Amino acid sequence: MVRALLKSKGMSGHQQPFRGKCDTWLTPPEILKALGPFDLDPCCPVDMPWKTAREMIAYPNDGLAINWRGRVWLNPPYGPETGKWLSRLADHGRGIALVFARTETADWHEHIWQRASAILFLKGRLHFHDAAGVRAKANAGAPSALVAYGRHDAIILEQCGIVGKLICLSK
Q: Quick one: pLDDT at residue 131?
């Protein structure tokens, strides 16, 4: 029963405040600035108005199929595919993911609680930006967290100045 509940909604959950003309929602640029430079964003939107990393992989290229190098930024597709991306980042061991703080989901139990180095639970709810770079009028509809994989990125979360609560894990 618990396993069925964990699998039921995925990382996107039940609330969808962004329903409408687009399903591409970009990381607020101030988050990226606070976290410093990244080498790779393996799942970047096609038309990105600002840089997320030195190398940005967008559809139709498959970011899961390429070789990941360096420090990775990951704002994965939210939903049933999120776990594939988190698993790949955990295997890579160096980078930060931005995900909803749906701590009860299978993705959290399998790829974050068991494998991450640190988690920064963000204070308040983010306002993502649409594909044109315009800040959404409504907040994300759920709390968000930054998840670090590797000691270096755990230290960056600790020192980044983003308001929230940091949880260090023993990874």
A: 73
Distance in angstroms (rounded) separating the CA atoms of residues 53 and 74: 10
Cα 145 to Cα 46, 55, 166: the distances in Å are: 24, 23, 9
Enter the DSSP assignment of 97: E
Per the CB < 8 A criterion, the answer to whether 157 and 150 are in contact is no
Provide the 3-class DSSP secondary structure of residue 167.
strand
Burial of 26 from C-beta contacts in 10 A (0-12 / 13-18 / 19+)? buried
Domain boundaries, the chain: 2-14+22-168
Q: Are 54 and 77 in contact (CB under 8 A)?
A: no
Q: Name which residue leads in pLDDT, 46 or 120.
A: 120
Say which residues have a Cβ less than 8 Å from residue 71's Cβ, sequence separation at least 6. 37, 38, 39, 40, 94, 95, 152, 153
